[in-house]
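Q: Sequence in, structure out?
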Amino acid sequence: MSKQYLTTHTIDNAHLTDIFSLAATPTALLSASGSSTIHIHSTSDPTIPLAQSLTNAHKLGCHHIAASHNGKVAASAGFAGELKIWKLAESGEWQPFGELDPAKTGSKSAGEVWAIALSEDGQYLASTTSDGRINVWDLFGDRSERIREYETGNAGSGSFGMCVDLSYDGKYTASGHESGAVYVFNNDTGRLQYSLPGLVKPIRAVAFSPAGTRLAAAGDAGIIAIYDTKHGEHVGNFTGHTAFITSIDWNDTGEYLLSGAFDGKVKVWSIDRGACVATHSETDKALWAVRWLPKTGRNEMFCTAGANRSLTFYREATGA
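A: Exactly. Output:
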């Protein structure tokens, strides 16, 4: 049984350049691009107005943005190497909370941070590096301490860490690499939990399910691999994309998975049915980011963004 989603709203030219990353909170959508400004749109208003712009957030642009699930903390990584933390003030506006400098915490260079992720409460942040290392910080600890550094190769010779995710409780970190490898680390023990069978080709997105029982991984193979995180087993694949997959996201219940690809197609997958239940394509240009929005009514919504510089919003059709 398929599901129907309707395009409800499009914000054309939302950024001056490609939109590379999206992050959703209970009330807002944060978007980042090759330009220096981060935009924040209110999703509690049906018209999805621009609520705030963080101007000059990253002088050379921002390639990744993440937000905690409780909507109180955000982080952004820029092409100049900045790793900035933002906090939601009581006024409802986002304000700078600090900046992490990997060079001051023992890392090799300030400009090495690539993908980033936050835990549910925003206390923990994970990031990847070009030589395969994975770092985890406690943002609320003394001086925002780095509490873990994981090596995926010998003496910093690991494969480029293209993506990362933290489980909701911050206990596990998952990373996907250019080599096709997928790793899960236990942040409590500081050890590798599983080295999962990868997809041979580069992994561009990893995502824990809300309950943390499943991990999805996808990339240049055009396949979404699903893993059982309790046993570290590969339990299935979703196939159907004909271009490499750039972004994936679980809905709040863990029943559906969203995926976006380089050919502009976005798909919705049912975990129970093990099948694609919806496919949409508003553009033939690359989608760099797809995100579910917090569910405020009976029907779900998601947003897509990419090389067409627009934000496109979809809502589940009434009665679907």
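The chain has a mean pLDDT of 92.
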